Every structure is written in C-alpha cells, then in structure tokens.
Amino acid sequence: KPAESDKPKNIIDNTGKHGNTFNRTKPDIIQKPSGQKAEDPEEEALQVPHSTSVLVRRSGGHHKVMALDATDRPRDPVAVGQFGQPARVPRDKELESRRRWSEGFFNVFLSEQIPIDRAVPDTRPQICSENLVHDNLPSTSVIFCFVDEVWSTLLRSVHSVLNRSPPHLLKEIILVDDCSTKDYLREQLDVYMSQFPKVRIIRLKERQGLIRARMAGAAAATGEVLTFLDSHIECNVGWLEPLLERVYLDRKKVVCPVIEVISDKDMSYMLVDNFQRGIFRWPLVFGWSALPEEYIRKNQIKDSDPIRCPVMAGGLFSIDKSYFYELGAYDPGLDVWGGENMEISFKIWMCGGEIEIIPCSRVGHIFRGDNPYKFPKDRVKTVERNLARVAEVWLDEYKELFYGHGYHHLLDKSVTDIGNLTEQIELRKKLKCKSFKWYLDNVYPDLVAPLVKAEGLIFNAGTRKCLVFQNHNLFLDKCDLTNKSQHFSYTWLRMLRQNTSCLAPQEKQIIMEPCDNTKTHLRWMHKSGKVLTEHVMIEGHSRPICLEAGVKADGIFLKDCDPINTFQKWQFTHYYAE
Ligand code: LR7
Ligand code: MN
C-alpha cells in the first residue's frame, strides 16, 4: 500500500505545485439527464449506465482490446523498478540522487536505472480485457508537449505509447519541444527518435507555454483524433482502444484515462481509487472527488463504466480533431501553464459536448512538487491571469464567486491586464453555448455556488428596524419583507447592493452609488454582526469604522467601532456563505 504522502493529491492548487492535499469529501452527486436522441435511424440507440445521454452504436464488427505488451513478459524481468515496483537508491548513491532531484523534481537518478520500456501492473478493472471495441476505430495522433523534460522519463513516455498502442490506431507521435534549454533534447533526441518512423519532432522557436504548444502539435497532426499526454507518463496495457471507442461512438465525447500515480520518490506505479471524478472548487481549483457510495449503489455503476466529469485534469485526453477545432481549440491568450483545463472543460460542456473518465484506460503520471522549467513571467500571476480570462468568458454572473475567493485584486485593470477577450466571447456566441447556470444545474449540481454571500432585509439590532433605499434616500424603517426597497445583498466582492446601486461611505455619511466591482471604496467587511468600511479611512481614523444606526433620527452614519453597541449590529435575513 502506498504511503499517505504518495497518494494522489486530490486537490491541485493554482500555483503549479502539487503540494496541497485535501481530505476526501463526498459531495452529493446528482446527474440530471440531458436526453439527447439519436438522429440516424440506422444507428441503434444504447443507454449507457450512469452516462445519461443516449449513445449511438455504430455498425460494423468488433474485437477484443489487444493485450499488447502483456506485462508478464518484459525484456528484462529482474531490472530495477520492473513491473512498476518501487526502486531503491543504493546507500552510496543517496547524495547523487538527492543532488539530481531538481533536474525534474522527482527521483531522476532512479528513473535512469529503470528500463525505458518497463512493464507496469495491469490495473484495469477485470472486465476491461473482455470488452469489445469496433474494428474500424479512428486513428490518433499522440501529442507530447515538453520543456526541459528529463531524458529517461520522456523516452519512457514515448515507449509506453509505441509498445502499448495498436499500430493501426497510432498514426504518429508528435513531440512538441517548447523551446527547451537542455542540450540533450536537441540532436541527441533527434537521433534517438529517428529509429521510430512514427515519431515526429516539432521545435518551437520561442517558448509558447503548454497551451499554444499543444495547438502547434494539433496543427501538425494527421490522425483523426488528438490524444494529448504529459511528457512524464506511462501508458498502461490497452489504454488507447477504450478512449478511441468512446470518441468513435460520439465525436463530442472528450475522454480521459484514469490518471494513476508514478511515485516521484521511488518511481513505483500505483493504482488509484475507483470512481473518481474531476471537479473544481472556488476559485477554480481542480481536484478529484469520489462518487458517493450511495450513488454508485443506487445507479448500479460498475467499476468499468465511464464517469462523467465536470472538469478534466487537463493533461491527458483524447478529442476528435475536427471537434477540437469546431470548439475553437484553446484560447490562445492563455499563457504557459494553468487554467486551460477549466477553459476547455466549460467549453466542452456548455457547447454541447461531454467529458468522461474511462476506467478501462489507465495512464501513470509523475506528480511533481515543482516544475523543472521556468515561467517567463511570474508563476502565480500567469496562472491568475489565465483563470481570469476563463472566468470572464465562461462564468457569466458566477465570475463574482471566482473573484470573491481571493482574487479581488485581479479586478484592478491597472494592475492586471488580462488581455483582449473579444474573440473568445464571439466564439461562445457563434457556438450558441449554454449558460454557466445551465452547466451548474445539469453537469455539476453538487457544487455550492450561491450568487451572493447574504441577502434579504438588513436588520439593525439597536433600532429593531431595517435599512431602506427609497427615492434616493437611505434610512431605517419598520421591517417589511414584502417591501422591495428593503432588499439588499452582500456580494462576493463585499458590496452592499440593491439592484445596481451600492452603499458607499461619504465622509461620515452613507450614500448610494452605481455598483462597480473595480471600485474598492464600495467594499464593506461584514463579520460578527458588524459592517465596517474596508478601504476607506475617514477623518483621520487609522482603522476602519463602523456602520451605525442613528438613535433618534432614522439615518445611518459611520462611527468608531464599539463591540457592545447594538446600534452597530446588522443582520441579513439569509446567509449563504461566511
Ligand atoms: O511552458 C510549458 N511548456 C510545456 O510544454 C510548460 C509545460 N509544458 C509541458 C510539460 O513539459 C509537461 O509535459 O506541458 C506538460 C504539462 O506540464 P506539467 O507536467 O508541469 O503540468 P502538471 O502535470 O503539473 O499539471 C496539470 O495541469 C496543467 C495545467 O495547465 C496541464 O493541464 C497539465 O497537462 C496537467 N497535467 C495533468 O493533467 C496530469 C495529471 C496532474 C493533475 C491534475
Ligand atoms: Mn505533468
């Protein structure tokens, strides 16, 4: 059993480092039917368990998934790390192994000891080797983008594809060198790969980042399906056919293998738990989450059934090439690393496609604690900017949840230039994509996504009255739930809003101003019943000051905060979030 620290990290943070582990939680998962119908009468409808849409079964013959590179007959059965076993560093090599860690942020020394074509345990659910696939599946181009990848892992990735893919389905392997700085990735790589006619190398003259590098790979691809992989992976037995089978059944299915774990420490190949979905939490943080047992039981989901995912991890998937371009590929404005998995996931679901994890397809991946390559600009800023582009194009009114979870600063356009979005917005219109609300309701209903933090009446404890905004006046009056002018909301960007007007401090008075998420003086802290100014210091106050109801008149003012003054206590009718 793998040690706790070696287990897959099920929440990946937005920094590019796989550091954050998260306790496994079990959200309530409900998948609502989308109810698509097969149009061609010659094609037979087939209801797939769990996947709720109706699939189309193509005609033609079938055969079993090929047991290529059966794992019981490796070239060198006693080699280090063979069969995916943990490898150990000899005592006298410990220093060397530690020294070389940062070449790839995994055990580079051990990786070199392990055969380039080692066998790995066949971790597929039992039924997978019996499953039938169509004889006439489409061919695929496998695209590896890399920058400064470690030699041994790059080679092992390529060999695993060459050895475990049926030749007639593997059109080519495209290696996209995203302007690596390492010498061995030039001539030495050319020479090595020249043994394999199916391998092509594309070299980018400038560092493009993995997103644009993938598009360069796609542009050169001649296969019918694109299969993207990270450059430090090992494909398991029978990995390819089940992916292509799904794409063949429905070209709008975008499919991912189960991503297993190659230990960064001992290079062992570890299987991961079944029934894991790709999900995200705010602010667009990718993670995995298990389907609840209850749901699995009730829907009789088998361990080999495709699992629909709200989002994909990003690195490993197959997509019909023409469909990829129909979707407008990736937003080319995304830089270097991060966020592209969210972009393509929202785009796929909202514009008529589906994302699935296929349990019969399994690929190991080295999860690294750090990236062995440099970010041309600041790493955190790069990822944030990418995510903001995605939020602006795809999240509609829900983008406030994204910004409200720690990304307020991105709204200041003088600090962060997220670039031009016209083309992406046009694309969404052209494709007639559904709303983010639709996505939440139909694809990811278990995500908690209240549009505001609190709403309803704002009750003042001292006066036992409620705030009213009427005829351009802000005052307190008898609480009345039916009175619309007493309805306010406390937004994710911490504004106190009624329709399009927001509470604003003006000296020690309060006025209503047009809401504007970029204006920080409109932000209020609301905690432990108090409402405090956030970004404004008034008349020499060095601290924020508090909203207070007038004792006699029905006005509201800003006064020094006083913990026991009930005239400074305010409460909304409903709270959705802290
Ligand atoms: O500028 C770059 N140019 C590149 O060509 C930066 C990276 N790359 C290459 C790199 O060499 C590697 O092959 O792109 C690939 C992905 O980079 P990694 O391995 O550093 O990324 P990762 O595994 O840490 O991150 C995951 O999230 C990324 C977000 O942009 C990408 O989608 C990765 O493909 C993705 N990896 C996976 O989905 C594997 C499972 C891990 C998870 C979650
Ligand atoms: Mn990776």
From TrEMBL:
Keywords: Disulfide bond, Glycosyltransferase, Golgi apparatus, Lectin, Manganese, Membrane, Signal-anchor, Transferase, Transmembrane, Transmembrane helix. Pathway: Protein modification; protein glycosylation. It is a single-pass type II membrane protein. Residues 5-51, 68-94 are annotated as: Disordered. Its cofactor is Mn(2+). Signal peptide: none annotated. It is found in: Golgi apparatus membrane. Residues 455-573 form the Ricin B lectin domain. The keyword Isomerase does not apply. The keyword Hydrolase does not apply. Its EC number is 2.4.1.-. Belongs to the glycosyltransferase 2 family. GalNAc-T subfamily. This is Polypeptide N-acetylgalactosaminyltransferase. It comes from Labeo rohita (Indian major carp). The lineage of its organism: Eukaryota, Metazoa, Chordata, Craniata, Vertebrata.
